[in-house]
Fold this protein.
Amino acid sequence: MHFADPLLLQSGASLRDYSLSFETYGTLNADKSNAVLICHALNASHHVAGTYAGQVKSEGWWNNMIGPGKPLDTDQFFVIGINNLGSCFGSTGPMHHHPDTGRVYGAEFPVLTVEDWVTSQARLLDALGIQTLAAVMGGSLGGMQALSWTLQYPDRVRHAISIASAPNLTAENIAFNEVARRAIVTDPDFHGGHFYQQGVIPKRGLRIARMIGHITYLSDDVMNEKFGRQLRAEAARVTHDASPVSAYLYSTLEAEFQIESYLRHQGDKFAEYFDANTYLLTTRALDYFDPARTYGGDLSHALARATCKFLLVSFTTDWRFAPKRSREVVKALLDNRRDVSYAEINAPHGHDAFLLDDARYLGVVRAYFARVFKEVTA
Amino acid sequence: MHFADPLLLQSGASLRDYSLSFETYGTLNADKSNAVLICHALNASHHVAGTYAGQVKSEGWWNNMIGPGKPLDTDQFFVIGINNLGSCFGSTGPMHHHPDTGRVYGAEFPVLTVEDWVTSQARLLDALGIQTLAAVMGGSLGGMQALSWTLQYPDRVRHAISIASAPNLTAENIAFNEVARRAIVTDPDFHGGHFYQQGVIPKRGLRIARMIGHITYLSDDVMNEKFGRQLRAEAARVTHDASPVSAYLYSTLEAEFQIESYLRHQGDKFAEYFDANTYLLTTRALDYFDPARTYGGDLSHALARATCKFLLVSFTTDWRFAPKRSREVVKALLDNRRDVSYAEINAPHGHDAFLLDDARYLGVVRAYFARVFKEVTA
């Protein structure tokens, strides 16, 4: 959908003549009360569920969560998957042309915030004629958007579902983002963000950024279970107890351990499809998000504006956005006597758990949406 | 000290015509029973204590631990600080010339293991006429060397002190090493490890490697306490509660948060003095260390060879080498009915704690060395 009115951003800059990519699933009911907006995290898109005809590998990123008969049931709800501004998957972003200059934005694309994304999403709802969302839902950075919706448009959200998220980043979170950004920015192929004109892509930096990211998405335990110290090479030699053991390659350049080839593969894949400028601005939006900031750090005070009902979910082994971060939000909402449900799921998979099949997790969301459906159809 | 005999390495390669840099502190007693060997970690050297005359900033890296009247008292012990082979601080390493070809080793420098370092250290002791160490001590990678001493030369060590260490790396540990190595190796200035001849240094990669390392040396808590979400910019604006708050720069390139400038500074410093090939081979030695490997993963079986007495120390917030890793060693030693002391220090500083002043930690080491001194002078 194209938007002709300029969007004033938190930074003071503005975007005009921009488009938002979105997909919808299910049917909007007569009183337009069953719409659920899905906000995405770092590297996802508006394609949240289903598979495109003839494209076997085109499964939506939250396809285990959203669809007919699934926890968020598209037979009951009208689900909107939206792609954030600045993304590289359809909505206006750094690889598009600046309407004033005709040149590719590149590094000139304005820095966006979570609040800016929410503002742009509200305009899409206006255009769709949807005044009030039955729910807004997201995981990780998507969960921050869901929280921000309740603060920016408290009257337009009945339920907010924030999964594996946090009220802001810790110093360590920012640190990981910063190392990833430096890897991209100092790649000679970055060219100050104007690499498109040079016909190159800062793939070295993107690979490093993705490898760092992947480490923080998994728990130490699940990494040990999946990869442990397993080697790639299979050449066996006999040991003290006569059991065969693979010989080391004794190389600093070859991938010796399974975890190394896994990370390299993830990095290579990512560098093929993700945009470097999108990576920079998306991680920056994460860094900046901090609704308590202008309230002297008082989250309870900051969340007083939120009036909707909440479901928060966290995962025990998520060390990127640990359960204690979700509990900060729960506490702040309870301080304001809000209606809050909270589930802390005992899952081994770290931050990635929010995208994976876990019966208890999916069950919690299913039960919550059953309640939402009762409310909107009451 | 120069060594003319070739050193056969675990990889099957060998090093000949090599030198080891070392420093000694205190006086070797008549029966040569008071020698303590200090093994260093990733980026340290043989300069463990004291300050060079006229060089104010030349303090040894373990100067709070070692010296006259300190926990390891150089009025009582003869302390040897040794620099590992492959280092960039004096001992033969990648920036030295291959004796056969006359060319700088660079990437041709052989991959070393913890066991190789210990073998080379034993030769130094031979040359110094020291048959038995009162103790071998190290932190982190140095602690692995101390452990390996007890397995390779059980008759030459009376006490081993291993601090903030582990019996091997986890998949996550290896993953962080691998990302750091890829950052170096994919830096266009690396030139396959032969950057010396090109007159360049892969500083981009070294900076990223160091930034990643620093994140893993600190605990999340201490990072929040030291840096939190503090900004660099001081431009104030008025907020909801009329308190001033710094304005964001809205930049993905500028260092916005204090933690970012701290990490950049650490990366810049490191890239000025540390050698890229040394970084690669030192992290690889960490990856490879795994004494239980040839015993089917049975650490108790592997440590049966060790006959000396042990002190192990770990720190509660160390997530790089967590206390549970030290406890694995303690358990394996107890399975063999060895004499083991173990202290788990409640310290906020993460892995870095082993280098910092902590009264309980230093007190534990002091008490242990008082016992060692009694034994060697009995």
User: Anything to note?
Assistant: Chain A touches chain B through 69 residues (CB under 8 Å). The radius of gyration of chain A is 22 Å. The CA atoms of residues 105 and 134 of chain A lie 36 Å apart. Chain A is about 35% helix and 15% strand.
